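Run log // design_07
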């Protein structure tokens, strides 16, 4: 779509070049959302591509994902990842969890998806479940960090202040070495996620982390020192997710999302109870 209110596109070599943030500025990542609907309040796009951040930096401590990393690059990383990172195949599951996945793979970025903060943001599901921490660069202030789970506060709402930039997300090696179970439901084959739930378990310590996304207006994470029994898990979900947090939109009713949340979390509980290594 032509954005006829946009009169300037800037290509800074570094983010500090944008010192003063004006109303009407917008960071431009893959542009898959920015160019998909009118942006009548935007007059200047600031292209993040020109910052030339390396997309993926694996180390012994974990994986640094630049906000500008394309979905396709993350998808391809699965082939190159260290073999002890048993959770990496989850990247592929989540990269395939976009509405009409293939159309936006080569343009959309991980950071753009997280900053959109939509309930069905699969990069939120992925990086939240793998205990990701966002590095944030506010304008004119010191960088700060926030867990991905705390970054999103509502449907299309997050903690970014005006002009604040998401620099990247760090996934700790300890989370990448976990085993996982993944469940997703969509009304149509390449549809928007109605429910996307990921469970992870530390194969040595046994602790269990459950991340509920798409079903709820913001991600919900439940942490257990061991896998609970079915009733304990259901009670924990009831405590953490009041009915008002289940999303109501054309992709699913709150009642159906709640039903699927119980249904899938019980499947995940059973799957991870019986496994100590590898992935499904
Ligand atoms: C066909 C189609 C299907 C889609 N399916 C889905 C889906 O299933 N789930 C879903 O969540 N979304 C979906 N989207 C919406 C959108 O395309 C994705 O959320 C995508 O990941 C956005 O990434 P982008 O890099 O293209 O962001 P852009 O469109 O470039 O930017 C999105 C927003 O984030 C801001 N932004 C981007 N990067 C940063 C940064 N590093 N720091 C601060 N702000 C930043 C921009 O200013 C803008 O406000 C879909 C869109 C289309 C057209």
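design_07 sequence
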């Amino acid at each position: 779509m032509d954005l006829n209110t946009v009169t300037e596109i800037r290509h800074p070599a570094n983010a500090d070049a944008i010192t003063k943030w004006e109303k009407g500025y917008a960071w431009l990542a893959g542009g898959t959302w920015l160019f998909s609907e009118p942006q009548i309040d935007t007059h200047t796009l600031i292209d993040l591509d020109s910052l030339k951040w390396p997309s993926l930096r694996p180390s012994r401590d974990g994986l640094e994902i630049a906000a500008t990393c394309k979905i396709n690059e993350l998808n391809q990383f699965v082939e190159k990842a260290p073999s002890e990172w048993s959770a990496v195949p989850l990247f592929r599951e989540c990269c395939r969890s976009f509405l009409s996945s293939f159309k936006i793979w080569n343009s959309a970025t991980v950071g753009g998806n997280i900053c959109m903060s939509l309930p069905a943001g699969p990069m939120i599901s992925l990086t939240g479940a793998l205990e990701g921490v966002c590095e944030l660069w506010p304008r004119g202030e010191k960088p700060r960090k926030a867990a991905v789970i705390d970054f999103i506060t509502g449907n299309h709402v997050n903690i970014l202040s005006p002009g604040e930039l998401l620099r990247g997300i760090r996934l700790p090696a300890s989370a990448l070495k976990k085993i996982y179970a993944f469940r997703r439901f969509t009304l149509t084959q390449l549809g928007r996620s109605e429910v996307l739930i990921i469970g992870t378990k530390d194969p040595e310590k046994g602790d269990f982390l459950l991340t509920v996304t798409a079903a709820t207006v913001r991600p919900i994470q439940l942490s257990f020192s061991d896998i609970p029994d079915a009733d304990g898990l259901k009670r924990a979900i009831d405590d953490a997710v009041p009915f008002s947090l289940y999303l109501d939109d054309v992709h699913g009713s709150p009642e159906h999302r709640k039903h699927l949340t119980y249904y899938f979390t019980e499947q995940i509980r059973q799957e991870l109870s019986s496994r100590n290594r590898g992935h499904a």
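The chain has three domains: 8-50, 51-174, 177-273.
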